[in-house]
Protein 1
Amino acid sequence: MPRSWTCATPDLDRPDHDPALVATYLSAEHGVGVRAGLFCAHPLLRRFGRPDGALRASVNLGTTDEHVDRFLDGLSAYLSGGLRRTYIVVGGSWVVADDARPVPGITAVGAPAPTTGCGRPKRGPITSAAS
């Protein structure tokens, strides 16, 4: 029988852990997508003592028990055993340092689209940093 979800977006806050690193870990090691950041609530998170942001996991109508279990298992593994891989910061984002997995279907990766804050793309032409 499917669960009936009443909470759409719990916030996970551990002051001694970088939320962006935890999000990268959950993605790379457990296949779980969560968000890390300030979520357009910069003053509020600073007031809560979280200037580096928080980790947010969202559930919706398409979320299954298996998705929730995988998230909880990944978070539990992180909190009890830590990272299994080596992570480094590249271009301001955490990445797996020794990730040799191929990225299927992608032959070149360009610069990310500029944003106006809160993830909204800027209007007008987008050029790479090399232009």
Protein 2
Amino acid sequence: MMYYIEQFVRNSIIGAPYGFFISIGSYLYTVVFVGNTLWIRGLAGLVGCSLYYLGISLFVASNIGVDPFNGLMLTLRDKTGWSIRRSKITMDVVLIIAGVLLGGRFGAITILTALTTGPTIQYLSQLFSRLLYGERI
């Protein structure tokens, strides 16, 4: 019983403010990143990717569940025995190819995100897991 109470408290601390921070981030993005220069767009992409990495890593480390997209990545990891890094890169590259075949466009931030999300999530989720639970995932 104590385990479930401890899980609830940990999950509440991490999971409860999620929507609140999404709202703040969406508002701040439009205020901070005004303009359409390459420099502003690059900085916005870097900040956005960093926050994305942080958020997904917290969700993976806290074991409170993830959205279906990242759940698919974790299922791929579990079924194949691959690392999070390899599963995420594979999934992102396949989805980029599918998007291009369907007529979509991609840019430098798309490639950067596809190649760096997996390794970053793997590293940060292990770090957060040690900090939260004293263990590795």
